[in-house]
């Protein structure tokens, strides 16, 4: 239900199956009467649940004191009346005030606990937000852009559109798109503050001031529905343990008739000559390593299925082979060295791999570098590009 007097839509909802009561938007009532219906929905929810009632405030952008005190009164009364019941208030670091404001409740009433959702997105989150990823991303984009700049128009990119780049990393793709295709508006969203800070510097370095870099959680964005003609999400569906949830969000913010564009890998298909066997062994292991942390770096060819299941039409899938023949082979060698650094470093160690395994694992990356730099060698990194149209 929406309340018209608020500047942004406010809604409250209760889902009995997940025992979750959610508050979303901006809620600034002048008196408690204005939110009486929401308060009674909360009371009804309390009556129906056993065990834990989850209070989802991840998208609660603003709440004035009148509303805060009215809802808190209900929580506190319920704690007294129902010692069997626990409240877990789920906040998000994207909406910082909620954690600060709701945390106090735990001191008054231990039955109420606060969880910051972002710290438990998915097991691999910390690796991909690590600042050591920044140099890899920049060189990767440099290599893929040669291919993508010619591919993008086939997937709906054109001048004058509104676009969003979700999980934008260091924002270099947004800058390249801005220069090449001149969209009217670009929003670039990521959950790594280090990457966004870097992104703003990259844009400034190119004299570009109108990209809207935004801190946010891609799986629960504060962006409104149906506002972009083109939504890109590169190399990122594959790092979420629930790619379908992320794709549903991309669908949501895309305009009917607009397109969502993704790129993903199939790591076990990285290849090189000479020393192909050692290279192949290592990249098979890369896929297993990521899957240990619930990330699917084999997702590329599965994107057609994900798009179909999400309800897209006119799905277009193509693959590209980024190789050592694209520009300076040293760029590719640098990317492989950075992969080795993170995958055979922090990730393998965290999985508890033996020194013997890590040594063999590293060797495959070294052999891939050897192939990339060899005057007669070939080293490849296959990427799947997919896009689909949101039905009108
Ligand atoms: C593999 S990188 C890809 C970055 C960029 N699209 C590129 O191709 O260079 C994945 C990005 O997703 C971001 N990310 C991870 N979890 C996120 C989340 N929940 N919301 C938004 N961004 C997230 C990471 O910070 C990282 O920048």
UniProtKB/TrEMBL annotation:
InterPro entries: Methyltransf_25 (IPR041698), SAM-dependent_MTases_sf (IPR029063). Keywords: Ubiquinone. This is Ubiquinone/menaquinone biosynthesis C-methylase UbiE. SUPFAM superfamilies: S-adenosyl-L-methionine-dependent methyltransferases. Residues 165-258 form the Methyltransferase domain. It comes from the Bacteria. It comes from Rhizobium herbae. The keyword Cell inner membrane does not apply. Pfam families: Methyltransf_25.
